[in-house]
Structure formats: C-alpha cells, structure tokens
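Task: encode each sequence below as structure tokens.

Item 1
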Amino acid sequence: MNSAQLYQSLVTALEKAGEASPYSADANETDPRYRAYGVRMPGRKAIFKNHKPSLRQLSIDAQIDLAERLIESGWGEQQTVGLYILQPLAKKYFPPETFVRIDGWMRHLHGWSKVDEFAGTFLRDILFVHPNELLEWVRAWNQASDMWLRRMSVVVFTRKVAKSGRFTDVALEMCHNLIYAEEDLVQKGVGWALKDLMKADKDRVLSYVRQLRNDSVSSTITLYAIRDLKGQERKDFLEGI
C-alpha cells in the first residue's frame, strides 16, 4: 500500500467509525474551524493500529508527508493519527531546519485537544533535544494572533517538561506575557502550566501565583494554578496568608 492508498484507507476507516459513533465530535471544541467525525480515543487508536504495519513499510520521508497531509486536512481525528505517525520520529528526524515546516502544521490546529496532544508529546520531545532552537518558535507563538498558538506556547511547559525543571524561567516568561489574555482557554493553559511548574520549583511559582492574585489577575488562572494545593495550604493561599 503506497502513501496515497494508505491515506485514503485511514480516512475511510475514520469516516465509517464516525458514522457509527454516537458523538458529533472527538472532543468538546467550539472553534468553527474545527471539524471532526466523532471518533473518540479508543477508536482512533484501533484504526491506527490496524494501519501501522502498512505505515511502517513506507520510508521516513513518506511517513512524514502522510502525517502532514493528515494534519493539514483540518479534521481532528486525522490530525491525531498524524501525531501518532510523528511521535516516534520526533527525537531523531526533526532538526531545527525542519521547524518552519512544523510551524506550518501547528497553524492547522484549531482546538485545545489537538494543541495539547501535539504540545505534550511531539513538541515536548523536540524541546528536550533542541531546546534553544525550538524556544525561538515558542516565543513567536506566544505573541501570535491565533489563540491556539498562544495556548501552545504555555502548555508545552506542562507535565514532563515542567517536572524536569529545565525550563522554569522561560515558562514563567511565556505565562506572564499571557496573564491578561482574553480567551478562557488561553487563561486555563497559563494556569495549567503554572500548576505543573510547581512540581519543580514550588516556592518560586507559588509566590508568583500569589502575586497574580494580589494583582487581581483572572481567577481562571490563579485557581487553576493551585489545583494541587490541599487542606491548610490551600486555605492559607485563598485567605492571603
């Protein structure tokens, strides 16, 4: 099966699964640019697994081209399958000279579910290998007009990236740039990043979040940031102690 045939087979499988699905979309997305068949995670994974033997017979370049076609389709489930293709290749096959191509892919993501998937896996792995070069793009996304690029510029610093402690300085810089963002999902992205950054430098980040609260920054950010605080510690924070 060549790349074109494989693409058509994947799309046909997703379409059929969508027709049988009780869901109207694969995630709760509100951006009118977002399109979906209604195939949830288990279904997407099963379809990818069924096509994986044929996929791995393609050259690396052909696999990346196929992923690009899936991402640029604008269909959420196709984009997730594209991510499944790219993820094992991230650390080895994406040097800095490919980042302009990656930037193009990111501009086709129009929902929190896809932004978070790509940032939390594919971009994460590239960040650990080429930190300085990728951070140049992250800073550009942080100032973009598209809210999804701005969300991506902070959620890339969640989970394993936050826990590593390697990027706290730049992560706080990116978060601070967006504390007055108007969009709820950008604010939540900032709060999420701050919450996870506490895993590596709790005192510093919590002090920063406390200052945001004192400055009357949106509670969407500050309350999300303290989700992991419990008991007396949470009570003290909310009472300004």
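Item 2
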Amino acid sequence: MTSRRLQRNVFVLLLVLSCALRGFAQERKIAVVVNANNGVSTLTTAELRKLFAGEKRSWPGGQPVKLFVRAIGTPEHIALLKLLGMSDAEYKKHWTEQVFRGEAQSEPATLPSNGMQLEAVRSFAGAIALMPIDDVKAGVKVVKVDGHLPGEATYSLE
C-alpha cells in the first residue's frame, strides 16, 4: 500500500470514529443530580442557571451550594455552557470576575471523571452536578428541571 493511500485510509478511519463518538456523546442524557439528602426535587431552568452561575449560593434551609463540573469538551460541560449561554472563555471570565469581586472563593471544582463527580455529590450535602443519567447511582438524587426528567420530550438539558 502506498503512503498516500495509507494516509487516506487512516484519515477516513479517524473521521468515522470521530462521527461515531460525537453521536455517542449527543445521545447521552444529562441529569441534574444533588446529594440524596437534599430536600430539593425540582428546579426551574432559571434557578438552575443561577446555581451554576454562582448567583444562588445556598439551598432552602441555608445549606451552601457546592458546584461540581466536568472538564472542557465533555458532554456535561457542553450542557453546562448551553444552559448558561456562554462559551468556554466567557465561563472562565465569569468565574474569574466573581472571585476577583469576592462573590466566590473559587470557581466550581472541575472533576476528571463521572465516577469522581458521583462520589463528590454523595459526600457533600450541598452538592449539585450534571452527569449522564446512565452514571447515576445510589447516594444522589435526580432533580426534575421544569417538572421533567431526562428522556422526557420537554426536558431542557437535551
């Protein structure tokens, strides 16, 4: 096989894999999860935006909100940016400004895996995160958004 032909075949293979992975990522349903002991069972999209933008810092009853997010490029991070209507750069700037103004101590904790995110939400009473519904396990609670759960036709995070 010639070098040019091999390069073309590798390129086609990478293109097919990229499309397949993109499709897989888009099919994953993203859930809003909180610690299982959190009394909140439903949030509006507006409340969710305020929580993830750091504008709402406590739950009913006074428990501090602890935000956990996934890394740039993950389906969860893409859903977060879509929810907030921000780009990655705008998101970073938003949190840098909040810290600079003293409105936040730091930007949300970024976790490298859904498993770590699951453990973090289980461990912190005020935790909230976005995670694929397939990764939700005991110790966390899926919160309805505008009265709907992931997979329902009018669920706003899909």
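Check on item 2: The two ends are 44 Å apart (CA to CA). The mean pLDDT is 87.
End of task.
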